[in-house]
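Postdoc handover notes: sequence design on the structure in folder B. Input tokens:
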């Protein structure tokens, strides 16, 4: 266990939770930053660790009988996010800052970072891995979020102004009953799934309040376990004294019961299951995990066609599974996850150096779903002083579900774009070489 500077963490607390319930195991890292859990029964576990002011992480792993697993935990990145928070032009001191990276199929470790604003209203989070992060700031009853995409080792900085607009309302079922604990999200009208959002939670009476908003119109969503998401378009956030209560209605919805197995028909435990609408919009506040038998149930989905995305460590990036949901009914689905393959692409040119400008996309066929976007090339160097090589770079894409893909190479204004189709096979490395040509 290491901190953002690569130093071993002594005395960091760790908890190991069995996913089928029961009492967790707990320990501390020693002077060398190492930890050990012994005498564990076979099963699926969640390992949680928080290294003080740095980065907190969670990992899920399957442990066989008499098996020994090694798992290194640390910041795993050199990215930074800097924030400056104000209200009415003055710094907001002591606001809680929480960043959480969006889950990816390549990295089974969920990464989080925590901090507080100082006397200047500033906070810097360090040791962040590349990826998309949701940064949440909480000051009093105001809670705002913004999405930040970090490249490896990059730094993002932005200022936030907490405004005086308020949204108040209630979350209720179709028959008028309150929905306690519902999570409520607000997006500015015209920015569905945009780069920032405001979140809150309904109380025991189903009432919620969102504060710190710019005055204006917002689209609201309410998520509650056992119900499809409720929506309300064009709600007005206004100043205190001019606020009207709004009402978000949630219905009963339908359920999907699924079994997840691997290619040998063995259950996959601890897989994460997301539900999405036709346009990719999330239908769940958090993923559902498969149990010891590889089983999971997703409840409260809206009637119509929904898509399930199942992701498990070591099984690549599977395609979405379409399911037709009927109000008040349960749909049965079986999902098979296959061993992933690796795609390695070499791009070269003989006259000009394109490596810095080239970006590569990988699309899953036939629906052309983008599974890797705008990947940069790593430069290749000659192996000896007398070996002439073209100016070339390569990129490796791991954890791909077996199947057919299209590689799209953008070499910038000097070169013609490239497209090539390739078959990725389970457990194998597929290589393809492409040559850039001048326009």
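Designed sequence:
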């Amino acid at each position: 266990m290491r901190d953002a500077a690569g130093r071993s963490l002594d005395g960091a607390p760790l908890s190991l939770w069995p996913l089928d319930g029961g009492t967790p195991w707990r320990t501390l890292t020693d002077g060398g930053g190492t930890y050990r859990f012994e005498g564990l029964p076979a099963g699926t576990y969640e390992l949680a660790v928080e290294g003080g002011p740095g980065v907190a992480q969670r990992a899920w792993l399957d442990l066989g009988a008499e098996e020994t697993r090694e798992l290194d935990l640390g910041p795993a990145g050199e990215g930074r996010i800097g924030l400056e928070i104000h209200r009415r032009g003055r710094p907001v001191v002591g606001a809680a800052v929480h960043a959480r990276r969006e889950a990816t199929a390549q990295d089974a470790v969920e990464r989080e970072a925590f901090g507080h604003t100082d006397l200047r209203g500033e906070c810097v989070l360090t040791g962040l891995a590349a990826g998309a992060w949701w940064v949440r700031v909480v000051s009093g009853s105001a809670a705002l979020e913004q999405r930040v995409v970090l490249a490896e080792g990059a730094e993002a900085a932005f200022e936030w102004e907490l405004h005086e607009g308020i949204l108040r309302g209630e979350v209720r079922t179709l028959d008028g009953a309150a929905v306690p604990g519902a999570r409520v999200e607000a997006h500015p009208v015209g920015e569905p799934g945009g780069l920032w959002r405001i979140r809150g939670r309904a109380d025991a009476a189903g009432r919620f309040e969102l504060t710190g908003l710019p005055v204006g119109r917002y689209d609201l969503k309410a998520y509650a376990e056992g119900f499809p998401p409720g929506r309300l378009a064009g709600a007005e956030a206004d100043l205190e004294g001019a606020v009207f209560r709004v009402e978000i209605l949630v219905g009963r919805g339908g359920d999907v019961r699924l079994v997840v197995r691997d290619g040998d028909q063995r259950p996959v435990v601890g897989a994460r299951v997301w539900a999405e609408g036709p346009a990719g919009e999330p239908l769940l506040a958090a993923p559902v995990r498969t149990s010891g038998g590889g089983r999971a149930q997703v409840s409260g989905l809206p009637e119509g066609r929904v898509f399930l995305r199942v992701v498990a460590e070591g099984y690549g990036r599977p395609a979405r599974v379409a399911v037709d949901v009927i109000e008040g009914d349960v749909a049965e689905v079986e999902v098979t996850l296959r061993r992933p393959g690796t795609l390695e692409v070499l791009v070269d040119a003989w006259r000009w150096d394109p490596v810095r400008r080239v970006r590569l996309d990988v699309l899953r066929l036939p629906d052309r779903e983008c599974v890797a976007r705008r990947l940069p090339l790593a430069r290749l160097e000659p192996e000896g002083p007398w070996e002439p090589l073209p100016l070339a770079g390569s990129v490796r894409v791991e954890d791909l579900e077996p199947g057919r893909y299209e590689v799209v190479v953008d070499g910038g204004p000097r070169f013609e774009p490239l497209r090539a189709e390739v078959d990725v096979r389970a457990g194998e490395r597929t290589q393809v070489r492409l040559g850039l040509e001048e326009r």
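Context for whoever picks this up: The first strand starts at residue 13 and ends at 18. Don't rerun without checking with the PI first.
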